[in-house]
Amino acid sequence: MSQIRKDVFTGRWVIMAETTTVQPADFNFKRLVRETKFCPFCETNEASTPPEVFAIRSPGSFPNGPGWSVRVVPNSAPRLRIEGELVPRADGFHDLMNGVGAHEIIAETPRHDRSLHELEIHKISDVIRAYVARMVDLERDKRVRYVLIFKNHGEGAGAHTISHSISQLVALPVTPRAVKTKLMIARDYFAAKERCIYCDVLQQEIKGRKRVIAENADFLAIAPFASRFPFEMAIFPKSHNSAFSRISPGQVESLARILRDVLGKLDNTVGGPPYNLSLQDRPFLRPAAPGSWNTIEDDFHWHMEILPQIVRVTGFEWASGFFYNPVPPETAARCLSPVVDA
Prior knowledge:
With 342 residues, the chain is an alpha+beta fold. The protein has helices spanning 121-139, 177-193, 197-208, 249-270, 296-299, 315-320, 329-336; strands spanning 3-6, 13-16, 54-57, 68-74, 89-91, 94-96, 102-107, 146-153, 166-172, 212-215, 219-222, 233-237, 275-280, 303-308, 323-325.
């Protein structure tokens, strides 16, 4: 019989198929095909993008020229713009504000023929350092409440026009509703038990090991109990930390290692499906509004989500809010990591 599982972090319900015999080869999808036409994110084409706002470069190289390992530029067609004022206002019963924020492209490598998991550890570490640097910089902008970093890999995950390996950053003047849900559940759990819900779940997963995909000294990667998608993965720091920007230099390399590990497993075992990766972080701590909670440092725990786009989201999911996953996470973990990493 199938199961209906509840996600303790979001309150979302997922219908989990009863089968445990699914194999990765049972799924068909379109592999990433890199376009060979002109690409503005390749090295030597820097003049084809807006001027860079951040880069990690070789000594002696110059801004907006070759010699970089990671380069961050404004999106040429941004969803939100850094210029202007928010001007919140009403339109009858409705609320609105100007589209102020930021939308940036993080070119993860100068090479067009490499995916993130195919880079060396120190190169992936540079990508993580670029994430941190941009978040720290944007936190100074009082108009920004939340920074979302995400990656669309493959056409089936939304990368329709760009085959170069990139991440994107969107700085928002409000906290996304999906993040608020996680924050409120974490707050309520902490109020009841004086413990972080994420830390408690991590301890259970480490002890049970049924859904562990990879592990090192600093991070744990699991197939979440209520996974929405086949081979969904989440990466958590083992030590409690509410803010990604406070990651230590040693943890940067550990995160790079486990990220390359799990994305490599997805590529080698499942054949390289398209996926969406997102950083789930806490909002910036602005002066608290009346009724705001003050335990966020203790109750929230940053993490990364990796959602392979192997099956389609249909009318049932959109209409009900329920997801249907044909691959239980325990099966996914066994497929991705027959021998759990030590």
